[in-house]
Amino acid sequence: ASATDASENAAYPLQASSAKAASTMPASMDRSRGRPRVVEGELLTLSDYVTDSYCIYPDWRLHYVPRMKRNYEGDPMSSTIDIHGEPKQVLVLASNPAVSERTGWPIGFWWAELTHPYWEFVEAGYDVTIASPDGGDLQADSFSDPSDASGYSADDLISRGFIASPTHAALVRNTPSIADLSLDGDDLGGFDAVFLVGGQAPMYTFRQDQRVKDLIGRFIAAGKIAAVVCHATCVLLDATLPSGEMVVEGRTWTGFANSEEDVADAFVGRQIQPFRIEDELRALTGTNFVVHGP
After folding, report:
1. Structure confidence at residue 85 (pLDDT)
2. Nearest Cα to 40, choosing from 57, 60, 55?
3. Residue 14 clears pLDDT 60, i.e. is over it
C-alpha cells in the first residue's frame, strides 16, 4: 500500500485532487515508509509506535497534489502529497475525564495516542473529528503531557506542537458527544473509520460504556475500520457485533501487556490500573491474544 508502489500506480493512475482536499492538506510528508494494507471490516490494535502505521482501504485511489514550499534560502521547492480519493471521514474517540480509584489522580486520555494518529490522518488527507462519549472538555493524563515535571513524555514533540497550537488545542475542548454525531444510522454518521484513544481513563470509562463497545461492533459489522490503542483495548473484553458474537472471536490481536504495566507501575512505585487487560483477556476462549515480550 505504499504510495510509491508501482503496481498500485499502474492500477490507479495518478490524477488531480479535489480543490477541497488540496486546500486542507498540511505540508508534505515522507512517503518512503511502507503502509499496511487493511481488509475491510478488519479490527486493528495499534502499538505505541502508531506514528509509523496508518490504515487505508485497498480500493482507495492515490491522487497527486502538487504543492510548493520554501527552502531555507527562500527559493521555491516542489513537494508532493498523496490523497486517497475524496477525503475519508475518521472519528477519533477519546475518553471523558475520570478519577482513578487506585491512585486518586484525575485521569483522561493519553496525548500521544491522540496527537500522533491525528497527524498521520490529516497528513493522508483524511477529515478528522475528535469526539468523546459524553462530549465537553477533555483532560489528558499528566504523565502524557510533554511539559509535565515528571519528564515521562518530554520527547513527544508532536504533542508539544499540538498543545502549543491554539487551533489544535481547541479540538479537545467542547468535543461533540456520541449522541451529537448521529451515529445511529446504517452509514454511522458518514464516518469511514473509528479510532479509540488510550490513556488511564478508558479503563474506567470505556470499560463500562456500552455505547463505545457497540460502536466498535457496528463499525466492524458495516465493513468499516475500527482501531483501538493501548488501554482502550479494554473495550474488547466484551464488545460484540450486532449479531451478539464477540468482536474478537476468531481474531488474532493484541492489547496493553502485563510487561508494560510492570514498567508503568515501577515508574510511579505503585499499582496504577484497577485491573490488567492481559490477565482478563487470557481468560477468553475462541480468540488469539498475543503480546511481544515476557
Report:
1. 63
2. 57
3. no
How many whole angstroms separate alpha carbon 257 and alpha carbon 14? 42
Q: Does residue 151 surpass a pLDDT of 90?
A: yes
What whole-number distance in Å separates Cα of residue 39 and Cα of residue 1? 12
Q: What is the end-to-end Cα distance of the chain in Å, rounded?
A: 32
pLDDT at 84: 55
Q: Do 83 and 121 contact (CB within 8 A), yes or no? A: no
Cell 470505556 -> residue:
206
What's the confidence (pLDDT) of residue 184? 85
pLDDT in tens, 18-49: 333 334 434 433 333 334 444 445 454 443 33
Distance (Å, whole) CA 95 – CA 107: 9
Q: List strand residue ranges (DSSP E) for 31-104, in order.
A: 43-46, 62-70, 76-84, 89-93, 98-99
Spatial distance between the Cα atoms of 236 and 184, rounded to a whole number of angstroms:
21
How far is residue 5 from each of residues 36, 120, 173, 196, 199, measured CA to CA in Å? 12, 19, 39, 29, 35
What are the backbone angles phi and psi of residue 205, rounded to the nearest 5°? -85, -65
- The CA–CA distances, whole Å, from 282 to 18, 203, 287 equal 47, 17, 9
| C-alpha gyration radius of the chain | 20
